[in-house]
Design goal:
Helix 1 packs antiparallel against helix 2 and helix 3 packs across helix 5. The chain folds into two domains: about 70 residues; about 70 residues, no CATH class. Strand 1 and strand 2 form a beta hairpin. It is mainly alpha-helical and about 200 residues long. It has five helices and four strands, in the order H-H-E-E-H-E-E-H-H.
């Protein structure tokens, strides 16, 4: 009589990583350095593979949302065009940065900033030809402050709240994250520190 084949479900990537950590703890307790090193490499590889899979899944989900968001904005703009509300406008350029919770909207291809005038749309981006690397060399040692001059000790970067020690410099802030919204915020502070905006 043949034995029935029993199938064991494969562990999830998270369970696999947990198992590697348990095996590494056992090897460490047994002072088996070679096995610890081997398992450490396997853990790094497994965690990188898991992070990549999660990133790709998120990118696929976001890609599917892109057309939905575009369609929603297109409908709103079409209604305004039909109502004649956008007569004289060149187009609609809209952006929303979740990193620093700012948004911006422009209806003309080029809208020069009037000296002393504050933007009414809540956006904080100001274009300037000055190179960030040059600004960092001249202004990087200065403290990173908000537009009102108060030191930046907290910020949301990529939907995650971060706390900084007092005295954070512009250079330290720049190097802290390469998130686009964050880098833009630091660049604006660099431009302000240099007296360019």
């Amino acid at each position: 009589m043949s034995e029935e084949e029993v199938t064991t479900p494969s562990p999830t990537p998270e369970e696999h990583i947990d198992g590697l950590y348990e095996a590494m703890s056992a090897a460490s307790a047994a002072h088996d350095k070679e096995t610890v090193k081997k398992l450490a490499r396997e853990i790094v590889d497994a965690e990188n593979t898991l992070a990549k899979a999660k990133r790709e899944a998120l990118q696929a989900a976001i890609a599917g949302l892109t057309e939905k968001v575009k369609g929603t904005i297109d409908k709103a703009v079409a209604r305004m065009i039909e109502a004649g509300e956008l007569d004289g406008a060149d187009g609609v350029w809209y952006s929303k940065d979740f990193g620093d919770e700012s948004s911006g909207c422009r209806l003309l291809k080029s809208a020069p900033k009037v000296a002393g005038e504050k933007s009414g749309n809540g956006g904080s981006y100001v274009s300037h030809p000055a190179k960030s690397d040059e600004l960092r060399k001249s202004e990087g040692a200065k403290p990173f402050t908000s537009p009102d001059g108060t030191p930046v000790t907290k910020a949301t970067i990529g939907k995650v709240e971060h706390t900084f020690p007092e005295g954070l410099t512009l250079e330290e802030a720049w190097k802290y994250s390469n998130d686009g919204g964050w880098r833009n915020r630091v660049r604006q502070a660099l431009l302000k520190s240099a007296g360019l905006i």
